[in-house]
Amino acid sequence: MAQHEWLYGIHALDSLVQREPERLIELFVLKNRDDDKLNNIINQARRFGAGVQFCQRKTLDDKVEGGQHQGVVAKVKPGKQYSESDLDRLIEMNPAPFFLVLDGVTDPHNLGACLRTADAAGVHAVIVPKDKAAKLTPVVRKVACGAAEVIPLIQVTNLARTLKEMQQAGVWIVGTAGEAEQDIYQSKLSGSIALVMGAEGKGMRRLTREHCDELIKLPMAGSVSSLNVSVATGVCLYEIVRQRAG
What is the crossing angle of helices 10-19 and 36-47, to 10°? Predict the structure, then answer.
């Protein structure tokens, strides 16, 4: 495991200092930047013994290779790594577990946006395959606006096998596919459920599709054939939230 990670962006770091300030090693802040949230991050860093350096913009740019750091970059201790055993524990802990499965989403911006929406919707964990999928990078953490520090991201070796095990534990697997016969508003989406979203452009892989209990689609009334995966994920998750609340 890496000795440290880089984290940047006001929201991501604000979440870190609220929840896990002990992970901070060193903070790098843009000179002459004055902002209440940033000042709170600086104060928390100092309180927990982390060093604070005030730098020129180029120094920060170099650390994040052009990422939108918003004037603050942190060297932090690695966060908790989740494993497949954590998924078993989450299923046991929750009477009606709620999961998001991303089948090969490779764009870090999409993964970050999905994590943010999943956290807001009350999802218990996001599940992704270990191979050919976006990892938890600084870009993902920045886009997730703090959600990546809260919601478990569980990487699994064999997604089809994981879906089968979830089914055996009583989780209903709902996959999204453009060719599905019924749309999301015709489906009963409550109880223990996992929503499966396919990759950008390609959709779900054949094996993933075969392990779904049900396939649904979003109604498309306009000229476009599909939505961005993070937008579609938000629409689907909140319809599930609405039905579960009812």
Answer: 40
Q: pLDDT for 84-102, tens place per residue?
A: 889 999 999 999 999 999 9
Q: Are 174 and 164 in contact (CB under 8 A)?
A: no
Residue with tokens 């049900």: 214
The pLDDT tens digits of the residues spanning 152-207 come to: 999 999 999 999 999 999 999 999 987 888 999 999 999 999 999 998 778 899 99
**Structure tokens belonging to residue 34:** 């004055």
**Cβ-contact 209, 149 below 8 angstroms:** no
Token pair 């300030």: residue: 21
Which pLDDT tens digit goes with each residue over 133-158? 999 888 898 898 888 889 999 999 99
CB-based contacts of 110: which residues, under 8 Å, 6+ apart? 134, 200, 228, 229, 230
| Exposed / middle / buried, residue 237 (Cβ in 10 Å: 0-12, 13-18, 19+) | buried
- 227 φ/ψ angles, rounded to the nearest 5 degrees: -105, 160
Q: Pseudo-torsion of CA 153, 156, 161, 165, nearest 10°?
A: -40
Burial class (CB in 10 A: 0-12, 13-18, 19+), 189: buried
